[in-house]
Amino acid sequence: MIQAFIIQALMAGGVYALLAVGFSLIFGVARMINLAHTAFFMLAAYGMFYWSYQFGLGPIPSIILTIVVVTLVGVLSYRLFVNRVREHLVAVLLITIALAMVFQEFMLLAFGAHFRESPTLISGFWEIFGVRVTYQQLLSLGIVLIVLICVWALLSRTKLGIAIRATAQDAEIANLMGINVSTILLITMGVATALAAVAGIVVAPLWVVHPYMWMPPLVMIMAIVVLGGLGSIKGSFIGAFIIGLVETLVVFLVPAGAFLKLAFALLAMVIVLVVRPEGLYGVVFEEERL
Amino acid sequence: MLRRLLRDFQGDVLAIPGRFIAFIFFLLLFLVPLITQEPYTLRILIFSNIFVIFAVSWDFLSGYTGQVNFGHALFFGVAAYTAAMLNKYLGLQPWATIPIGALVAVLAGVLTCIPALRLRGPYLSLVTLAFPLILLGIIKAFPDVTGGEHGITGLTRLSDSRITDYYISVIVMTVSVFIMWKLTDARSGLVRTGIILHAIREDEIAARATGINTIRYKVLAFAVGGFFAGIAGAFYAHFMRIAGPSTLDLMLSFQAVIWSVFGGIVSIYGAVVGVYFLYPLLEILRVIPEFRFLILGAIVILILLFMPEGVAVWIRDKIERQCPRCKLANVALRRTCRACGASLY
Question: What is the DSSP letter of B63?
């Protein structure tokens, strides 16, 4: 019971962390709320399903293909559609939700509204104190942690990471220091989409894959990034595991918990915002210059 | 009195093409049942009328005060469920349940202010987004009272015939839109709210420095926005004869934004144009159900890319030109201003 609970909470937290870190990166660097973020997660889950199940490729090539294709789609859609209206908050929100809708409809056309499941990468399970933990769950958890560590290393140890963080702190000064801001924006979009793609790949064999699967995690990661402080990577990482824990607790303990998990997560977000409007690790942005 | 009204009509409606078109449009809406009495057409138009109130109330709240509300469905759903419960459990009639539902929505709006007014920008959008979803979770967790997934069904009809329904909806819509348009009219001599809301949106600190209690006006905006969204929600519940979870859906909140921004934000009539264009279009697209939302999404993206200020505003700028000296709107064809004679070029 308790082991299953811990694995479940870690799994949910890990997937949310992948999504929320990407979402937070985009918000921090481009100051835009990307509502299409989880649509890329959905695309990646379908990509995994398609390449490995319908196309019959092995696990490694299908993972690589999925990440490359989804990242390309993400960067292209940013370049073609979002970039032009980046200044207007409402227009960005609208265009990203429209993009998400278009992706959803494409997947509906291509695969139908059936609930799909992608084959597991490795089979078998491990019994700890009478609880079955499949190897797939452990593998997914491992991938999530490795990718998150890679992102942390990228952001804190490389020149590119420093440029990304500088742009997030103050785009104009970063520009004056010789950083090509629009290229950094594109790269950030690519990194964030790739993170969403990894989340989708990890989830494809465990959750049910369907065209509407982007909606619930979207609301969850919004709660997470607000909880952690919009634009803060560390905050969204910690927030993701808190929300993952809350969600699993509610599902396990409260009657009718499956309906209430979203409500509890959002309630946590509202309470944090009322008590501490800048979130757990609030990032104070420079006021816009006039 | 009558002569003055006629003179105002000539000067303020006939001379400005945008308003003239709006006048003709509302006139036509009243005449629709003379042309067709097909229930399906009337049904689409009634839904459009309801959603016009909903979308315009979003524009009033979010467009004019700059507080992008992402959970506008909260007011819609709260009013729908209130009206449904009052009707189902207490047996109240629609003429009582709709206003009470709207007042409960006002209460919801004022309560939203408590966290919302401490926040701004994206934080505000995200926190408002949370409320309808929290309520949705609660509603689904107590299916005995709220009907759960199926909602509360079998409400009293609005009236016996669809044509009466239609006229009620047109009148309610016209009056609501007119009130909200008047409240936001920056040049109105009657109410000051218009110019104050504009001031808050442009620069809140400057507005506060001139002695405007901005908090009070933001609460007012939430209350008024909530009231009209509530009317739309309760009306919807009685017309559909069901109040279900779809009235609190995330998509409904987004749709209010889509309609308003499509037509043009901060303009009231933009939201009207958006609904009357997009809602029937979505219904017509039912002939090709697989491509319905694909086409809708594509249209929204294209419009935002090529007319980022919205369709209605784009058209207005094509057919009207503002006089640089007296700021009066003129037909785009004129070379000189109709009032002060200044050159328009």
Answer: I
Half-sphere exposure of B154 (CA within 13 A, CB side): 5
Query: What band does B175 get if pLDDT is binned at 50, 70 and 90?
Result: very high
Q: Domain-by-domain residue ranges, chain B?
A: 15-331
Whole-model pTM? 0.87
Complex ipTM value: 0.79
The DSSP code for A126 is: E
Under an 8 Å CB criterion, which residues of A touch B? 27, 33, 81, 84-85, 88-91, 93-95, 97-99, 101-102, 104-106, 108-109, 215, 219, 222-223, 226, 230, 256, 259-264, 266-267, 269-270, 273-274, 277
Measuring CA to CA, which residue among B131, B154, B149 is closest to residue B78?
B131
A288, A237 contact by CB (below 8 A): no
The C-alpha atoms of residue A242 and residue A259 are separated, in whole angstroms, by: 19
How many A×B Cβ pairs under 8 Å?
127
Residue among B173, B163, B152, B164 nearest B51 (CA): B173
Nearest CA in chain A to B62: A90
Q: Which residues of B touch A85 (CB under 8 A)?
A: 304-305, 308
B248-263 residue pLDDT tens: 888 899 889 889 988 8
